[in-house]
Design brief:
This protein is mainly α. It is built from 28 helices and 12 strands.
């Protein structure tokens, strides 16, 4: 038996070693979605699938190597195995930090899985220095290390991630190396020579280890309970970052804080509740309490429709942390010292097989995330074609929580737009202009949220936005026919990029329209536009010439459909009377602050002819939230009151839902370039305002009750 002083020192050092490892692991989780999108240029759904493969290979390596590590530690002692594992973890993080491709990141995760298999050795170390009186308490220290590590790691990772998704990997590599140095000088050996056994390959594998455990009575039932508990728990690291990013629009920092809260509550329970409960209730009853709260928490997370609810479930369900330590202690008490490494290898393999299961299935086939679209009911990819398995991007089917149609049909030949449209006007407005890879990720994020339609104009960004977007589109991994590209022409802008333009004016001549479309196609890197709009009414428009030019573009295949923007009903009718097909839409300005279209006949005209108007500046150009005039303040207050009444978490989503409530089938164009704001605004599709709520907002906008 190890003397108490060495046991205390060993326990403190192995706690520190594991804590630093968990901090390093936790730091990576918040930035993984952004890092994968940087490496691959994909959206959140594709990144989730790639992330699932990384979790899969990590768990697979743990599954196969945990019995080997356990067997080697039973043969050569715990110390050398722990040292090798910590050093490997440092090398793994360095490889991931400098990775220039997904395969290189994959290799790094393979090494991480091998080093992570040492958890079996850590557990065996704890068993070596424990007795029946303190075994469960000591195993609780492992849980505390996990909990504290998941407080510090994700929060630190989220903060470091603001400097770039690679920074946490560099920091984790350095942290692991410091951990290695500390362990090399101070970590004691806990397995003496007389308790070591011969290493046997037939026992150093998952099947052989599990078969060997059958000789110890009761281990099988403990293993089954441990497997089922872990199967539920391992769903969280597999999907937490991706689902919270998609479902709540959380940033890396917000994801980090949520994981930190989860770890902190668990650590508090194991540090304060576990030592008091075990002596009174015993290990079996304590485990049952923990398993009960584990099941209740899972239901809570499933039905948490808003981000704040996650924190409520974390706090209420934190007693789930009581389950793991007593189960491990019960198992450790049933085997001799020479088989502790083997036992912990078996339990780590059980842990890993649950990671393999949860790491792949939820992200590849179940409904955890949509496949490049929002709130999809399909089990298949969006490429599925026909029948009940077809995705809403093709058939318009939404899940029951959606209050509005998923798509807007524009033409009878099948052209449709996403109900919310991504507006590219401000793509280059920020001081730090996005590069092609960043734009590709933004495209992927928008598509993941269900915004498959992208609104452009030749003049946006002083004639530069379409080319920048086209560069990003070339890096995006999606298919061209899964999105809709919209452009507008006829405004001639006075710009340094067009020195020949002396002043702003309009040109709807056939020559200008044809030249503008050709430039847009070249800049966007596409063979066709799904929709071409005339940007502004031209007082000098020759309806016959303009109509002939538009019809020629449709016939040539360069343009699928034609519409207008900012046209009055009479201007719309004039052009429509000269075309051999119907105009698809009229893009007009409308918001809770600009309600003219309700009374000037624009929306009446749209309903009479059956076309769906697109809406630009649906939030009043930001004045809804920044304006200081009486009207803006009244409308903000009215929207806030409605939001509180219906439990909506975002005022912009309510303002957009106000537009969606109109029967003319409006399609708002969203102008934000921030993924988290896009995610918040998409929630408008879930909001169905009743008539009194809708009129309350209108009354605030008009400053008087309706007549």
């Amino acid at each position: 038996m190890i003397d108490p002083k060495t046991a205390r020192r060993g326990l403190a050092l192995v706690f520190t070693t594991l804590l630093l490892d968990i901090i390093g692991f936790g730091m990576i989780m918040p930035v993984l979605p952004a890092f994968l999108r940087e490496l691959s240029g994909v959206g959140i759904s594709e990144a989730a699938i790639e992330g699932g493969w990384l979790f899969f290979v990590y768990a697979a390596m743990q599954f196969f190597f945990a019995p080997i590590m356990g067997g080697l530690s039973d043969r050569f002692g715990r110390r050398p195995i722990l040292l090798a594992s910590v050093l490997t973890f440092s090398i793994d993080n360095l490889i991931c930090a400098i990775a220039w491709s997904y395969p290189m990141l994959f290799i790094g995760r393979v090494l991480a899985g091998v080093s992570g298999a040492s958890y079996s050795t850590t557990s065996a170390f704890i068993a070596d220095i424990s007795n029946d009186a303190n075994r469960a308490k000591n195993f609780g220290l492992l849980g505390i290390a996990f909990g504290v590590g998941f407080v510090i790691g994700p929060v630190l990772g989220g903060l470091l991630g603001t400097f770039g998704p690679r920074v946490p990997f560099y920091f984790a590599a350095g942290l692991a190396f410091v951990n290695f140095l500390i362990a090399m000088f101070f970590l004691p050996e806990t397995l003496d020579e007389k308790h070591r056994r011969r290493f046997e390959w037939k026992r150093a594998n998952p099947v052989g280890t599990l078969l060997q455990m059958r000789q110890y009575q009761g281990i099988g039932w403990i293993g089954l309970a441990f497997f089922l508990m872990t199967l539920g728990h391992m769903m969280y690291p597999a999907v937490w970052s991706f689902v919270s990013n998609y479902r709540y629009g959380w940033s890396e920092q917000q994801i980090g804080f949520s994981l930190g809260a989860f770890g902190l509550c668990g650590a508090i329970v194991m540090a304060t509740v576990l030592p008091r409960v075990i002596p009174k209730l015993g290990e079996w009853k304590t485990a049952v309490i923990g398993l009960t709260f584990t099941a209740a928490s899972a239901f809570g997370y499933a039905f948490a429709s808003q981000g704040w609810m996650i924190y409520a479930v974390i706090v209420v369900g934190c007693l789930e942390a009581l389950a793991d330590p007593p189960l491990r202690s019960l198992a450790a008490a049933k085997v001799p010292p020479s088989a502790q490494g083997e036992l912990q290898g078996a339990m780590t393999s059980i842990f890993s097989i649950t990671s393999i299961i949860t790491g792949r299935r939820p992200l590849s086939g179940w409904r955890v995330l949509p496949d490049a679209c929002g709130h999809c009911l399909c089990d298949e990819s969006c490429e599925a074609d026909g029948g009940e398995k077809r995705c809403h991007r093709r058939c318009g089917r939404w899940s029951p929580d959606m209050s509005h149609d998923s798509r807007i049909e524009l033409t009878k030949d099948g052209l449709s737009l996403s109900r919310l449209v991504f507006g590219a006007w401000r793509l280059l407005d920020s001081a730090a202009r996005p590069d092609a890879d960043q734009i590709a990720r933004l495209i992927g994020t928008a598509v993941d949220l269900g915004l498959t339609s992208f609104d452009h104009a030749d003049i946006y960004g002083h004639y530069q936005v379409e080319a920048a977007f086209g560069a990003g589109l070339s890096r995006w991994k999606g298919k061209r026919d899964s999105i809709e590209l919209i452009s507008k022409c006829d405004i001639i802008l006075a710009s340094a990029n067009r020195p020949q333009n002396r002043l702003k004016h309009y040109d709807t001549s056939a020559a200008h329209i044809a030249a503008s479309v050709d430039r847009s196609l070249a800049n966007l890197g596409t063979d066709y536009l799904d929709l071409l709009l005339l940007h502004r009414p031209d007082p000098l428009m020759d309806a016959d010439e303009t109509a002939a030019a538009l019809a020629g573009l449709v016939k040539s295949g360069k343009v699928r459909a034609v519409g207008v923007s900012n046209f009055t009903p009479s201007q719309f009718d004039l052009l429509a009377s000269r075309l051999p097909f119907a105009l698809a839409t009229n893009q007009i300005e409308m918001s809770v602050l600009k309600t003219n279209a309700l009374m000037d006949g624009s929306l009446d005209h749209a309903q009479r002819l059956g076309y769906a108007p697109m809406i630009w500046s649906p939030l009043g150009g930001g004045l809804l939230f920044t304006g200081k005039e009486g009207r803006e303040a009244r409308v903000r207050a009215a929207i806030a009151a409605v939001a509180a009444e219906i439990g909506a978490g975002d005022l912009a989503a309510v303002a957009i839902a106000w537009l969606l409530r109109h029967p003319a089938r409006l399609a708002p164009v969203l102008g934000t370039m921030k993924p988290e704001r896009l995610a918040a605004m998409v929630k408008a599709l879930e909001i169905d305002l009743d008539r009194q709520q809708w009129f309350a907002i209108l009354e605030a906008s008009e400053g008087r009750p309706v007549a």
